[in-house]
Amino acid sequence: MNKSNNHKCDFCGKSKEDVEKLIVGDQAAICNDCVDLCVDILKDEKVKNFPVDQKTLNPVSLKEYLDEYVIGQEDAKIALSVAVSQHFKRINNPSTEIKLEKTNVLMLGPTGCGKTMMARKIAEYLDLPFAICDATGITEAGYVGDDVESILTRLINEADGDIEKAKRGIVYIDEIDKIAKKGESVSITRDVSGEGVQQALLKMIEGSIMRLPFTGKRKHPGSDMQEIDTSGILFICGGAFVGLDKIIEQRLDRRTIGFNSQIGEKYVNPNIFQNVTNKDIIQYGFIPEFVGRFGLVVSVDELTVENLVQVLKEPKNSFVKQYKYIFELDGIDLQFDDSSLTYIAEKAKELKTNARGLKNIIEKTLLPYQFDAVNLVERGLKKIVISKSTMEGNPATLYFDKKSKNEQA
Ligand SMILES: Nc1ncnc2c1ncn2[C@@H]1O[C@H](COP(=O)(O)OP(=O)(O)OP(=O)(O)O)[C@@H](O)[C@H]1O
Ligand SMILES: [Mg+2]
Q1: DSSP structure class, residue 84
Q2: Which atom of ligand 1 is nearest the CA belonging to 317?
Q3: Within 10 Å of residue 208's Cβ, how many Cβ atoms?
Q4: 287: nearest Cα among 203, 199, 201
Q5: For ligand 1, what atom is nearest to the CA of residue 72?
């Protein structure tokens, strides 16, 4: 390094006057521009090797991770684990000879059974940027609403503005069933906007270079558009597909018992979605090209009352564990007896909300105790037991310190 006071950057040779900042050490000096450059090089290096230890992802490990959180849905968990592991093979081992095709996933099944949750848990496990968006808000370019590109903007934001990271991310498009054309048979009144959105999504989902307005850090000041190649992004689309069961049922009826299907008691399979074919989805209102972009169609099953009880207490982050923790923070031991859990599960089943409704039902009952917790603890409250009777609107059993006798609230 130049020993005089006239320091220069040892990397680019610029003098102190020509740069914003010059960091001078004993043996060398570096300017702010070269520091920025080095940071970028290190970051790019990291992205290239990302994720280092997951060049091939073992689907079994991913499935085991999902098992910790998601009750039931065995088939969907296995199918998703394999699809994601394939996605990894594709993005981490690009072969010039054999091009692995993209396997986007279409997930169908009743509300509140774990579709969004599974997608979210997968992203969490892989530590990939994950964006959730809702198909109902998407419109064709030029119409009022979010356009298709906004999905990618969201993913880039999730990747903290890092396009390279975003290019390997996962996008979950919820409520995809809402962009079906309405009623294929009533073609005169068919909903063109649904078809338009499907068309707009096509290119992005199959993998192409999309241009979108800049977000995040700008590498080239002045340019207000950026490009992102979507071929490494895994798209998972999910929806409840209300009414699709009827289409599947009709097809199965025609195949098995023909016109006699209306006669007598008919057995309705709660997991009829397992029999879905691409044709059914097309009949539901999707254009064949759109359906064709999904290499994998998985269905989630309706949760039984037993499943719902499991959802309440078993997952790592179960509702019971969450509420116990909330009360523990106030110094109260909260307990649910088995009768209360069955009651909550049956109620959710009755409301047809599946697991989605569980929290709401518990919350309503626990609200007054949460409100009063601090006062009750001051009076010596140690434990609250929630039973079926509590859930039906009666007071919970409250246990106070030895000094005060047990009392009912
Ligand atoms: N199989 C499951 N195991 C454990 N928890 C579940 C399961 N299914 C749903 N839940 C719980 O219910 C909540 C709602 O589920 P989720 O958002 O995944 O439903 P969904 O299938 O995406 O429904 P929708 O079609 O309405 O979007 C989750 O956050 C989770 O707490
Ligand atoms: Mg969902």
Answers
A1: H
A2: 31
A3: 12
A4: 199
A5: 1
pLDDT in tens, 382-391: 999 999 999 9
Centre of ligand 2 to C-alpha 21, Å, is 50
Dist. CA 215–CA 129, nearest whole Å: 15
CB 314 within 8 A of CB 278: no
Q: Give 257 or 37, the one with higher predicted confidence.
A: 37
Rounded CA gap, 323 and 313, in Å?
11
Q: What is the pLDDT of residue 183?
A: 57
Indicate which atom in ligand 1 lies nearest the CA of residue 355.
12
Residue 190: strand pairing partners: none
Amino acid identity, position 38: C
- State residue 403's pLDDT score: 61
> Residue 146 pairs with which residues in a beta bridge?
138
| Cα(16)–Cα(182) distance, integer angstroms | 68
The pLDDT value recorded for residue 214 is 73
Q: How far is the CA of 70 from the centre of ligand 1 (A)?
A: 8
Ligand 1 shell residues, CB under 6 Å: 70-73, 111-117, 174, 238, 240, 311, 315, 355-356
What is d(CA 371, CA 341) in angstroms, rounded to the nearest whole number? 22
Ligand 1: centre distance to CA 356 (Å) = 6
Q: Is the pLDDT reported for residue 26 higher than 70?
A: yes
3-class DSSP assignment, residue 54: coil
Q: Which ligand is nearest to the CA of 118?
A: 1
Q: Among 8-17, 223-232, 249-258, 337-346, which stretch is predicted with the lowest mean pLDDT?
A: 249-258
| Residue type at position 316 | K
H helices of 134-240, where? 149-158, 163-166, 192-206
- List phi, psi (to 5°) of 153: -60, -40
Quick check: 260 pLDDT over 50? no
pLDDT of residue 314: 95
On whether the CB atoms of residues 386 and 334 are closer than 8 A, the answer is: yes
Burial class of 227 by CB neighbour count within 10 A (0 to 12, 13 to 18, 19+):
exposed
The two tokens of residue 302 are 């309706």
Enter the tokens of residue 20.
């914003």
Angle at 404 between CA 400 and CA 408, to 5 degrees: 55
